[in-house]
Design brief:
This protein has 306 residues and is of the alpha+beta class. It contains 8 helices and 17 strands. The strands form 3 sheets. Strands 1, 2, 3, 4, 5, 6, 7 and 8 form an 8-stranded mixed β-sheet that branches. Strands 12, 13, 14, 15, 16 and 17 form a 6-stranded mixed β-sheet that branches. A 3-stranded antiparallel β-sheet has the order 9-10-11, with no helix packed on it. A hairpin with a 4-residue loop joins strand 6 and strand 7. The N terminus is likely disordered.
């Protein structure tokens, strides 16, 4: 079993261990521990999975000097500790001259990872970006100290505790009440021609998830929706989102229109068009398979064949 294989299995966050004093030095002293290097939003890959290093690769002072922070990610099914070496975005890692290792953006890497490793990569990138981007207390400006093996910060000046931030966002697949074989998708102004996806947006202060769905769809597509039904959620570190997915029906399908700013086109697509796009046929470009938008679209399409 290779080092990457040993972690490409069940993953336990082992959150109860984070309060153990000197946890990071302790697990770094265990030869069974595996290390994942994360540089900005980039992860290292080997043999179709995450490139987990042995602790010995990070034992030397030169290698250790490259690490901005360490974080405990949990344990694999064999009980081995999984830790993250947080590197600056432009910093390489020991072994980057290894021809079997490539470094890729999480956006590129995620579709090719299995579910467990994709979750580990998303967690790693989310936590790494917070550790690098938020070293100072937002209340008083003092530099904070990292606690809980990378999962919290404490300000030594004002005593406040800070934790990785997660911003809730909603994403919704809109169906046609009068024609169940049609799905409403929109094209963002920043996307290439023919790329369409579900409607999404961040939840505002004091707003419910269902309220955010109704507001975003009304603002972006001009459509009022009826019942809003929860489907699934997905953590996504761009920048630090928790995407909460829903299905909803348009009350008046004919009222659909783009806002002309963020959304430049909205279209009702027939189930056959969606099926062709999912199979790589036709001009329609759908979101990648690592996204919850892809899952919502694929589940809607599959439901039509039941």
């Amino acid at each position: 079993m290779t080092s990457s294989d040993s972690a490409r299995t069940r993953w336990d966050r082992a959150a109860d261990e984070r309060n153990i004093a000197e946890l990071i030095p302790m697990v770094l002293g265990d030869p069974a521990t595996r290390v994942l290097a994360v540089s900005g939003e980039r992860v290292r890959l080997r043999d179709g999975g995450l490139a987990w290093d042995t602790v010995s690769r990070w034992a030397g002072p030169a290698a250790a000097g490259q690490v901005d922070e360490w974080a405990f990610l949990g344990r694999d099914e064999h009980g081995a500790a999984l830790v993250m070496a947080v590197l600056a975005a432009d910093t390489g890692a020991p072994g980057d001259d290894d021809a079997s290792v490539t470094t890729e953006s999480l956006r590129v890497a995620a579709p090719d990872l299995d579910r467990t490793e994709a979750a580990l990569a998303v967690t790693g990138v989310s936590l790494a970006r917070w550790l690098l981007d938020a070293p100072f207390c937002p209340a008083c400006g003092a530099r904070t100290e990292v606690l809980q093996a990378g999962w919290s910060r404490r300000c030594p000046s004002c005593g406040r505790e800070h934790f990785p931030r997660t911003d809730p966002a909603v994403i919704v697949a809109i169906t046609n009440r009068d024609d169940p074989d049609r799905l409403l998708l929109g094209s963002n102004a920043a996307w290439p021609d023919q790329r369409y996806s579900c409607f999404a947006g961040f939840v505002e202060a004091g707003e419910s998830l269902e309220g955010a769905v109704r507001r975003e769809v009304r603002e972006e597509a001009g459509v009022e929706v009826g019942e809003v039904r929860y489907r699934a959620s997905q953590a996504w570190p761009y920048p630090r989102s928790l995407m909460v997915g829903f299905n909803a029906e348009a009350v008046d399908a004919g009222s659909a229109r783009p806002d002309g700013e963020e959304i430049v086109s909205v279209r009702w697509f027939h189930r056959q068009e969606i099926g062709d796009a999912l199979d790589g046929r036709g001009d329609l470009l759908l979101p990648g398979p690592a996204s919850i938008a892809h899952r919502l679209i694929r589940e809607w399409h599959a439901a039509g064949s039941l």
